[in-house]
Amino acid sequence: MVRMPEERVFNGIAYTLLALVGLAAVLPLLYVVSVSLTPYGEVLKNGGYVIIPKHLTLSAYSKLLETSNIFRSLQVTVLITVVGTLINLVLTTLMAYPLSRKNMPWRSFFLGMVVLTMLFGGGIIPTYLVVKATGLIDSIWSMILPNAIWSFNVLIMKSFFENLPEELLESARIDGAKEFRILRQIVVPLSKPSLITIGLFYAVGHWNQFFAAIMYVTDRRLYPLQVVVREILMMTQQPLESAENMVPTVTMQMSAVVLASLPIIVVYPFLQKHFTKGMLLGSIKG
């Protein structure tokens, strides 16, 4: 197939822009990983910027794991992510399925209330007072329950449920199945791509939990990983004897960023196909 000159020019410009955007996304990540693995003497020699290190060292990671409560904060973050995501998926599914049924009484009213929460929020102080009044301060649940349902995810899930064949659900009702059984045995198995997509949204949100932790938690034993990483990033440089053997703050900062990001980066490729399919099937129609 012969391409016109205009098409070749357009493709060249498009590929160039995509390459630049790709580099803009990859280079910062490559820089963080490289600095975390580079001896400090080499970092100083290159003016603080290293993309491809000549020598590798794990001293920053070793020092980080020895001198900070990374393991405890990692356990807290994993607990928040697993338990919180399960609660999110259950509550979102139980809310989205009734809203997807067009014969549900007061359906428009409840949909309007869901959309209203996307436009208006109670604010930081009222939310804090609610969390305090319910006794969630200084507990794991203060980082899970206030964000148990995201309105946007409810609308995505509702749209996906509306696209399921109505004849399939009607045949189940004719056979005597109740709505909860239809949801559990028919709707949920058919909705795995959408559930994985929504679950990934929730899991990333919980893994990056930071604001709720600094608002509602004062017990350092309950700090999630992102709060500990923030403390490491705010450390000041401590002078040491040898630049070749020192483990400076900057390399510890970069290693902390890598440790905080690595689990999500590792998990995402295995869920990518489900993520893409779920976004397409659950897209909101106008």
From TrEMBL:
The keyword Iron-sulfur does not apply. It is a multi-pass membrane protein. Residues 74-268 form the ABC transmembrane type-1 domain. Signal peptide: none annotated. Pfam families: BPD_transp_1. It is found in: Cell membrane. The chain crosses the membrane at residues 12-33, 74-97, 109-128, 140-161, 250-271. Keywords: Cell membrane, Membrane, Transmembrane, Transmembrane helix, Transport. Its main location: membrane. InterPro entries: MetI-like, MetI-like_sf. The keyword Cytoplasm does not apply. Belongs to the binding-protein-dependent transport system permease family. PANTHER family: ABC TRANSPORTER PERMEASE PROTEIN MG189-RELATED-RELATED (PTHR43744), POLYGALACTURONAN_RHAMNOGALACTURONAN TRANSPORT SYSTEM PERMEASE PROTEIN YTCP (PTHR43744:SF9). This is L-arabinose transport system permease protein AraQ. It comes from Paenibacillus allorhizoplanae. The gene is araQ_63.
